[in-house]
Amino acid sequence: MSAVFNRTLTFKAKDLGVDATLMLTFDDHISGLYHDKFPVCWKVTNFAAQGPYSMKATYQSQLAFLKPQVDHGSDTIVDASTYKLVNVNDKTTLTKDDKGVYHFSDATKGEAGFLQAVNGCPLVEDLAIGFTKPNSGDDPIPVLYFKSVGNNAFVKAQFTPVLRAYITEQYQETQILKAEVDVSSIWQADLAGLAPTTTWILTHNKATGKYTITEGH
Q1: Measured on CA atoms in the order 183, 44, 76, 63, is the torsion positive or negative?
Q2: Out of the domains of life, which is the source (predicted)?
Q3: Domain assignment present for 153
């Protein structure tokens, strides 16, 4: 088990020159993406053309499997029925008792290098992977969604915290991304390789229309 780490990133802009919406999601280095698993939008914030703006995002590497509650009208995850903290190499099983309450089993040893969850419920179920909030008893934040997992079927994932940033107004926080974002990412970083606290500056080039994020202070 690797030590749990925290990363706090602050994104800033000052007099950007245009109104822009910054969206953060983990949608890189994941096999089978948009086939049997889907990334979830983590953070969305608006930066106005004039004035100073900032957004803070804190990631903790302790992961969990969730039984998500999904608003299918908006394709957003609104809550978690229950969850189980897991580490790489762990496996857990989701069951449903005769009162309709979901439970995850204690973690056991699974396939090396992966996180695994088995659907032990009689019907298909949705599952998700999320990460915990530092110093919080809140539900984990979902980052990867698995749709319609069959009875006795299992999901497995290798989750690397490669965060990407996009300029797009199409998404809201906790929305499930059913397809690739239709604009190119403007920035990405493996959070494991960053310092505990970093600051990132968003700028816009009026002549080219290009957005850039660079490390700042």
Answers
A1: positive
A2: Eukaryota
A3: yes
